[in-house]
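Regression report. Comparing outputs from two consecutive submissions.

Submission 1:
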Amino acid sequence: MSSARPSRSDARSGGGQIGLAELMAALSLAIDVGMAQPIEQGLATCLLAMRLAGALGLGEAELIRVYYLALLRHIGCTAYSRDVVALLGDELTFRAEAAKVDFGRPEGVAFMLRHIGRAHPPLRRPGALALLVTRGPRMFQEETRGACEVARLLAERLGFDLDTRRDLELVYERWDGKGFPGHAKGEALTVPVRVVRLAEDAELFHRLGGREAVLGMLGRRAGRVHDPAFADCFRQEASELLAVLDTDSIWEDVLAAEPGPRPVLSDERLDQALRAMADFADLKSPYTAGHSPGVAELTGSALSGCGLPAEDAAAGRRAALLHDLGRAGVPAATWTKPGPLSRGEWEQVRLHPYHTERVLARSAALRALGALASMHHERLDASGYHRGVPGSLLPFAAQVLAAADAYHAMTEPRAHRPALDPKAAADELRREVHAGRYSGQAVDAVLESAGHRVRRRLSRHVAGLTDRELEVLRLIARGLSTRQVAEALTISPRTADHHIESIYAKIGVSTRAATALFAMQHDLL
């Protein structure tokens, strides 16, 4: 893990089927959500940065650093302290507006005063403003240092080298030395940092006002925020550089722009990277530290205990690692609120599985995992979210993930309640089974994996069909092909075919038409 990019032989050695660039592009979408920016803003910044780097004549090593820095530059965005959250209120609103502000000028102070004034009710504003004046600069310096350190540590776990990790530590610095945490300026800023900072501002102002807005920004910020030589290069070739943003296929363009040998991740490196992404999500709240890996361990163990093939259990575990990526799109103050949520706050919470699915849907290699991960708050009685679908449309792996997420969350403290002991959590989960919200089989599998004693249930389905076989039967009875069944249930085609053969043997048929008739005869649909 000392090098950012494995050799070509490593990339072709088998195992993982997703490239490093594709995984980081997906993570970039999650970062966009966490920064309250339009999704694909990071991808657009990456394209523009690569075009600018080409105009500056950078070599392959620096191009690689520019590419990944552009995608990951805000990877520390979930690491906000309680003090800053208390001061800012909704940090997502703050970030969306602050992106346009030059904090090295008086407008930065004016913006902070306006935001703090809006973020707090009248009686609390004087105290918040006093805190801003007395501790604000030091607090934000410490906060930025923390975000940079988190970025460096996550990048190390993602496999990036020392140079890229150093770039991430400098990403909030400025040419004039007035950035955060304020340890570097001018030529001390690495070339990739200078390129990406300029590309990010150019993308933002182009989105807000087109080419003229970009040129105006360059006139105001050259020599202050940005390297004046780089700004001059951009100004001279602005039309050609900005043309890269005029695309309908930004995802594909970013993957095509990846410089260097384009490594593919092995299974081991993929798992390490997904664990780092899980920690990125869990950092959003001090109450969720370690939550996603714990849910992943329970989910994978429970699926294996149910006799699923190793590849299906691994898919469930990986989906569990990613299930809370969408947390980044909900204000930290909502996750740490000790009292009841308002209607608006609750709606934000209900959207986090949607955000998870959205950021993973662009990647062909991650799409199925994202679909499964986004179901972790669905319930058998259709009372869950974000879709509110009934149990008949939930794959068994999703039912296990939901049970594992609920059990693990109950055994962790939350802002509105203390942690439950394992027995109380198990009892509560069983009550939810009786209420019709969770699958009894899924809950038993999760509780057994968590160390509880459970009574093995005998299947009561006709012809001895298992729960999974009943799911498969319903799908093939409605005309789905073996591959479509596999996609719907997030299993391999080989496993789907194995289930179909078992169903045929148990019900004594050999065709799908007869299977459909059997299902109708026994009211299984």
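Submission 2:
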Amino acid sequence: MSFEIIDHDLHGRIGKLYTKHGIVRTPTLAPVINPLRSPFPLKILESEFKVDLVITNAYIIWKNYGKKAIEKGIHRLLGLNVPIMTDSGAYQILEYGYIDVNPDFILDYQKAIGSDIGVILDIPSGAGNTKYSVEWSVKETLRRARRAKMLWDVDNRSMLLVAPIQGGTELKLVEISARNVASLDYDIYALGSPTQIMENYDFETLVDMMAIARSHIPTTKPMHLFGAGHPIMLSLAVALGYDLFDSASYVLYARNGRYILPEGTLRIENITKELPCECPICSNMDIESLKEMPEEERVSKIAQHNLYTIMREIKLIREAIREGTLMRLLELRSRAHPSLYRAYRRLRKYVRLLERCDPITKPEVRGLFIFDEHTIHINPKIIRYKKWLMERFFTSRQYAILLPAPNVKPFSIDPKIRDFLKKLKSKGIYPELCDVLFYSEIFNLVPIELCEMYPLSQFEKGKITCNKEELNAIIRYIKSFIKMRRYRKIFIIPSKKWPSRIFKELSSNGVEVLEEDLEKALERIERSIV
């Protein structure tokens, strides 16, 4: 077993990827390094940044070092002892359309230079390609993946092998690619060709690509997202089940004078007063000193700051998974850019995928932060509760009373509710004859017996605005629930906060709408039951 899963939250996982040169903690980002040109000594990746994994390009190494890299080995060549992943040259195909290397040769070359993780030479599906060319890239990549796996199994080699998933923005082709390559049992799978999508900030399409690819790969297998490295989108990718990332953004942005922050990017020339960061680079200089540096030194400093920011985000994501607060971090990051927020909302299509690995609870329970109505439709813990209540709440009682959920938590400690229940008990109505449930725009229905259970009272909510479609969904849920329980009679006490049409529609389905005043409601309940 090369991959061990330690913890979960949403579809995000903390794991251990075992390689020849050590354990890679996931989620992690592998900085892309160019052995011919680096803004700082590569050794500090190991000594200062404590990276678990780096990635370089086997094709570039072959073109520039040839057999010398085989003689020295990739680790001695780069002067690093951490696990090293090598790409096969597919990025060059994406950029230039062709490279002069055979797929079998470049795979053997990666093994010969001592790569810990190698990638087959796939054919990228460019974002602007025709459907015909994308279809060909999927078929050719699958052909190469089958051949590479066959040769790999025969030779029983120790390098971990990555199979890319192609299809670009043609989502049906992404599904075909993922489903077929999953059957080959590779060590690691990767979503290929997302770079152009991310450059255009088309995060909605990226969510579709990531979700469809991940849903067809076994949960026991790690997933890599090529070219993803900006902090604002890493929590989104991790939530969808991606474990490994690589990016040269820390260098590329630095060369363009761009300064990465968790919430976005600033241009150095626009920073006038102070550097808004406390990393080892920024805490030891001011903005004036940075601007006055020679260009090469300035690029080096910004690149190091950028990498510190990205690695900090990775650590923050891992801690969020441990605590069970990845959803909270994802929602915070999604507000960093309108395109990212639209992508976050797109997750409503993929709740089942988010729930696939999401734990029911953690050893230390963390309350839910419900920012708006979108949280209700995305957070797996809320979706799971509604499903379980519908399927597992059995009752022999003949009547049901639906009360508006009060503002206090748990709902049962509200003074008016407690007084109401006390009177119901004194008349022998509750709990002998009657179920008491609270209706809520968040959980739809909460039986009083469950209202102290997680997460039914462990949440904080913002302003929730339900549109017509969402209100109709709540009505359908309540109708389905009461129909399955076959109560003799259902009473509902209306709330001014809810549209009157909800109560009119429920009334037409056999629900008796009572007065808002609990005393008058109690009298009608007593008359109806007695």
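Expected: both submissions complete independently.
Actual: both completed, but the second showed a warning that disappeared on reload.
Relevant detail on submission 2: Residues 334 and 344 are 6 Å apart (CA to CA).
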